[in-house]
Specification:
The complex is a heterodimer of chains A (244) and B (331). Chain A is an alpha/beta fold and 244 residues long. Chain A is 37% helix and 24% strand. With 331 residues, chain B is an all-alpha fold. Classes of the chains: A alpha/beta (244), B mainly alpha (331). At the A-B interface, α2, α3, α4, α5 and α6 of A face α7, α8 and α14 of B.
């Protein structure tokens, strides 16, 4: 197992945003984490990356216990991520944004720049490398986040709603990009709202609802699961005949 | 690029010959030295305040350490004051570590407030130590004993000493700017969380920047003492010292190599002129002046004067189309 979360609980006061979740990801897998708003999937995601400390439970990455490690240490072990709302380095060029990622494995700035240029080419930002990053719109920024993460040469890439806010065409292109990244040998964990993305990308899916795992399986199995449908759409009120 | 290089060379030549141009005019000889001293302090501040974006408003604490170290080695050991500079720098690195570890965790204004609190605390404490001359302060050698006492009739030797120190500091800053540390500091300034997700030990790099910045601010303090020969709690640890460093750097352009120097070239003459015109009556006016400048920078020039000369991205007209390529149609 590349990533293994065991009995992870994250409580904010009395409220358990994540309640006893256990998820493992094999090397080379694409795992989808889905669930309605507030299901705890983003919180769980942030427990994996170290942005949030867990209340209880353990997280291991590549056999190393990383439960107490800060995000930067996990990143150096090869766990890369993107953010739901892109955190672009606004004052820098697109190239320099990617260079920050590349500097992790290439301390020499010149080599890091070359690596960054290479990665930008791969995600389709090559021609814009020298433009200021703040000139990018949301789709471009999401792409840049992926490029930055890839430039750090990770073993696993965790995507937090990388496709929210994209048009259908852009979503298809992004799916294509994620596929190519996966083909390059990188394990993917993807938190996503858009069902199309999960169905076309993920091999296995874990469904969260109210901080707990309520289903897991292939995308097809999960989308026909009664509990999942209920979590997304609400229970049909049989006696009153009205679902609202 | 050609114009920039030309401007840079012009500035270097001007800096080298300035004392010759104003030879025999002590006011201007002194002014040149003061501009450079201000630029050293503001450039030192710039490392942590500008590049790393950790706005310390308590750098006077390091300046005072430098100034007092220089005068203390003279008063208590009879050494030339400049010999206190390495001691002040070493103590400042240590102090930066002690202050930095807890306070650099604070973000934005909270860090600034913590640094003010520390500096004010040290200022008040310093006036209670007999060892440091109490509220009266301490003076350096009245008459030069050897050349190492750095006591000169004109300000020109100080000018060249300060110029050498500033050149070294700017060279070091330039080197940092183009190394991994410079990239990481800028990343931390823009988004600490994103930087950490890319393997940047934000806490460690901020601390390094703070210690380095503190060391050179202390050096500025020691040089100040060598030139003025006197320090008391207000001129060593006073909040105006901290504010000056921030305002000079911000006026020229914080986080830019020459920003603090440009700020010093404007602010120091302005301050000297207002002092000589208004004499003692104008003492409080310095604060008014700084307040006005802060307001103007914040409102109209958040990136400082140098941003006016920033290169625009090539072919700005192509931007909307180019963005589309990235957003939609790239393969």
């Amino acid at each position: 197992m590349l990533i293994e979360a065991r009995d992870v609980t994250k409580a904010f006061g009395a409220f358990k945003a994540v309640d006893n979740a256990s998820v493992s990801v094999e090397e080379g897998d694409i795992l989808g984490l889905i669930g309605p708003n507030g299901a705890g999937k983003s919180t769980f995601f942030n427990c994996l990356t170290g942005d949030l400390p867990v209340t209880s439970g353990t997280v291991t990455f590549g056999g190393t216990d990383v439960t107490r490690l800060p995000p930067e240490a996990r990143a150096r072990l090869g766990l890369a991520r993107t953010f739901q709302v892109p955190l672009t380095f606004e004052s820098m060029s697109i190239l320099d944004n990617a260079t920050i990622g590349a500097l992790m494995r290439h301390p020499n700035a010149r080599e890091a720049r070359a690596k960054a240029r290479d990665v930008l080419q791969k995600v389709g930002l090559g021609p814009l490398a020298d433009q200021p990053a703040r000139s990018l719109g949301t789709p471009g920024r999401k792409r840049l986040e992926i490029a930055r993460a890839l430039a750090s040469e990770p073993r696993a890439l965790l995507l937090d709603e990388a496709m929210a806010g994209l048009t259908p065409t852009e979503v298809r292109e992004a799916i294509e990009l994620v596929r190519r990244i996966h083909d390059g040998g990188i394990t993917i964990v993807i938190v996503e709202h858009i069902m199309e993305v999960i169905v076309s990308l993920a091999r296995r899916v874990v469904v969260f609802h109210q901080g707990r795992e309520i289903a897991r399986g292939t995308p097809r199995e999960v989308t026909s699961d009664a509990k999942v449908i209920e979590a997304y759409l609400g229970r049909r009120r049989v006696h009153h005949g009205d679902a609202t | 690029m050609g114009a920039r290089r030309f401007a840079f060379l012009g500035l270097v030549v001007l800096a080298l010959v300035y004392p010759l141009l104003v030879a025999g005019l002590p006011v201007y000889e002194r002014l040149g030295a003061l501009v450079l001293l201000g630029a050293i302090g503001a450039s030192a501040w710039n490392i942590v305040g500008g590049y790393a974006g950790q706005v310390s408003v308590g750098h006077a604490v390091f300046f005072g350490f430098g100034a007092y170290s220089a005068v203390v080695v003279y008063t208590h050991l009879g050494w030339p004051p400049i010999a206190g500079a390495p001691i002040g720098m070493a103590l400042s690195v240590l102090l930066a570590a002690v202050i930095g570890v807890p306070t650099l965790r604070l973000s934005g204004h909270y860090f600034s407030m913590a640094t003010i609190a520390v500096a004010e605390l040290v200022r008040v404490l310093s006036s209670t130590f007999e060892f440091l001359g109490g509220a009266q302060g301490l003076g350096g050698p009245a008459m030069p004993r050897t050349v190492f006492d750095l006591s000169f009739l004109s300000a020109t030797p100080f000018y060249y000493i300060f110029l050498a120190v500033l050149a070294f500091l700017l060279g070091l800053t330039w080197w940092i700017e183009n190394s991994r540390m410079g990239f990481y500091l800028r990343a931390i300034k823009d988004s600490e969380r994103a930087a950490r997700s890319l393997g940047v030990s934000a806490g460690r790099y901020k601390l390094y920047a703070y210690m380095l910045s503190g060391a050179f601010t202390a050096l500025a303090g020691s040089l100040y003492l060598c030139m003025f020969g006197f320090v008391d709690p207000e001129s060593g640890f006073g909040i105006l010292i901290s504010v000056k460093m921030v305002v000079m750097a911000a006026l020229g352009g914080a986080g830019q190599l020459f920003g603090p120097l440009v700020g010093a070239m404007i602010l120091v003459p302005l301050e000297e002129l207002s002092n000589s015109w208004l004499g003692g009556r104008g003492a409080g006016l310095t604060f008014v002046l700084y307040g006005a400048i802060i307001v103007i920078i914040a409102r109209f020039l958040p990136s400082g004067l140098l941003s006016l000369f920033e290169r625009r991205p090539e072919a700005p007209k192509a931007k909307p189309g180019a963005t589309n390529v990235a957003d939609g149609h790239a393969d």
